[in-house]
Design brief:
Elements (H helix, E strand, L loop, with lengths): L1 H16 L9 H10 L6 H4 L4 H10 L10 H15 L5 H17 L2
Helix pairs in contact: 1-4, 4-5, 5-6
């Protein structure tokens, strides 16, 4: 599960920045960067992103698996952020969030 959270963090990073968290010219260089490097969080990319979402992304990409959030915590945090930031006028995404929330709550009840 914690490896999957790392992948979710990398996906969040890419979705937020349109850049790879760990870049390289070939597979070996990307793997080397993944092990040795820390992703960068430049102001130009992250200034418009909510602090909570940035912190969630950082915690998911943490090199120490024990410090990564569980899948349940990570997805609940994301849903909470989405629910707070989706316009009331946009019902489709809001109802999708509600369905996901009910599904998460039901699976762990």
């Amino acid at each position: 599960e914690l490896v999957d959270i790392f992948a979710v963090g990398c996906t969040y990073y890419f979705a937020l920045t349109r850049e790879k968290a760990f870049a390289g010219d070939d597979r070996e260089e990307i793997l080397r960067c993944t092990v040795r490097c820390q992703p960068k969080y430049p102001w130009k990319w992250f200034r418009h992103i909510a602090t909570g979402l940035t912190e969630l992304t950082k915690s998911c990409i943490c090199k120490e698996p024990d410090r990564r959030p569980s899948a349940r915590i990570g997805f609940q945090a994301t849903l909470t952020w989405l629910e707070r930031n989706i316009s009331d006028q946009n019902e489709e995404p809001r109802s999708s969030c509600e369905l996901l929330r009910r599904s998460l709550d039901h699976q762990h009840a």
